[in-house]
Amino acid sequence: STSTVVQSCALAAVLSVRGYRRKSLTLWGSAVAFGVGSLVGCCGISTTTALIAFYVSGTRLTRVGKDIKTKIEEHYEASGHRSSWQVLCNGGVAAFLAAIRCFAPALHLDSNVRSRLVLAIVAQLSALQGDTWSSELGVLSKSQPRLIIGFRIVPKGTNG
Question: SS3 for 144?
Answer without folding.
Answer: coil
